[in-house]
Amino acid sequence: MSFGDPNNPYGPPQGQQPGHGSQQPPQGQPGYGYPQGQQPGYGYPSAPPVQQPYGGAPTTMPGTVSAARVMLWVIVGLQVIGTVLFAVSAVAVDQAKDDPAFEELADYPTGVLWAIAVLALAWLVWAAVLAVKFKAGGNGLRITALVFGILTAVIALYPFTVFGIIHLVLGILIAVFVGNSNGAAWFKRPRY
């Protein structure tokens, strides 16, 4: 069998000399089966990048958002302690009014202590509602949590400067973690 015949289907592609065994086509001529200007490659063409479902929105709560939720629960615990302390203090001051040994303490207005206890209870409820709704909340909850964190930090600065340092740090961290890009992606994700 001769490979020199140009009509032989088992022969080398046209333009190549038989017997040289070269795999590359000569310069200027396309190889057999390969389009002009392309080198032969191995495997399949690359696939498009895999995207997350819902157009790139996170499907699990990011770590910073989860940390903000935990910090809200810590504030709930601290508010429980604060509410109990202020309520017990108000009751103690009320009872001290009858005792002449505690006349200085009896002059302290119990209404202020009860007001602070009610404020601490309201803050506790607000933090608990925010923490519960983090899983399914939307952008409105994100803004509310951001306002909560900022107000917590501001209130911790002025009336409760020494005792409010924990609330100051937690409030700042909640505002930062909810306000960053991970928080925005979590709370603005589509819900189906």
From TrEMBL:
Lineage, opening ranks: Bacteria, Bacillati, Actinomycetota, Actinomycetes, Kitasatosporales
Residues that span the membrane, as ranges: 70-92, 112-132, 139-158, 164-187
Keywords: Membrane, Transmembrane, Transmembrane helix
Superkingdom of the organism of origin: Bacteria
Organism of origin: Streptomyces mutabilis
Name listed for the protein in its UniProt record: Membrane protein
Bias-annotated ranges (Low complexity): 13-26, 32-45
Region (Disordered): 1-57
